[in-house]
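Treating backbone geometry as a discrete language has practical consequences that deserve illustration. No coordinates are needed to read the tokens, only the vocabulary itself. For completeness, the protein is quoted in full, as a sequence line and a line of structure tokens:
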Amino acid sequence: MTTPKPTIVVGYDGSPTSETAAHWAADEAERTRARMRLVHVLALPVVSSPMRPPVTLQNEQLRLAAEQLLDQTGRRIRSAHPGLDIDVAVEFGGTAAILLQEATEAALVVLGSRGLGELRDLTAGSVSAHVVTHAHCPVVVIPPRWDSDHAGGIVVGVDGSEISAAAVDFAFGQAQARSTTLTAVLAWHDPVRTGPGDMLPSVYDPDALEQEAAAVLAESVAGHAERYPDVSVKQELVRGHADDVLIDAGRSAELLVVGSRGRGAFRGLLLGSTSRSLVHHAPCPVAVVR
């Protein structure tokens, strides 16, 4: 029995950033021997009247225009990636709901961080909050005007949590598939309150905190050498806040990988200020792993 190819889903709306996302996904699909699925979501037109309940219309002209847009995009991608298996779909409905449905059977979802219509402001709006937070597969967000010519290596943010371990696994796989290096980064800082009722120690040893963080970092990448013997790994322990440290680390990276949630400095990742800072301000593509 032939094993079906994994699917990479791309949210596409014709904007420049979604075009960049589509070509990034095509490179990834070719590298991982996956099929690519371009998805364009159209909002359902609703006609309402005080005398009757709202009626939802599916405008066939909109569908045909969207299908033409996807066909043109597919031809551009195939010209650069001959033989790539590309599927296209036009769906009516809410963008987040449709993309989450697509994500249930996908290996990866790729989105541009800026788009048009329903994909507008993915990094800060409801679409991103739903897709990045609730997708059952990793989600990659591509920044505006992304240019990979001067980027190299994978960066993964670690904190010792279970989801951080999943991010490390994903990052090793990416580094091996791309034949590039991997840098594991752990940000540490003085104790801070992470929630109501947290008590801060009146006395603490910064050296002990740093040593504890170094142990977490080393443990996070331990055991991967046997599975990924060709991946060169560098560990970086940096004093600072997670968002600042990782944004800085991503300036020369081709991909920044983080877990969807973490602990300590990473608590609430992709739900609070750290997540919005990373996805919105990272200078390279960001992969969010659950």
Summary: Residues 183 and 234 are 5 Å apart (CA to CA). The longest strand covers residues 35-42. Residues 154-288 form a domain with the Rossmann fold fold (CATH 3.40.50.12370). Residues 118-125, 264-272 have pLDDT under 50 and may be disordered.
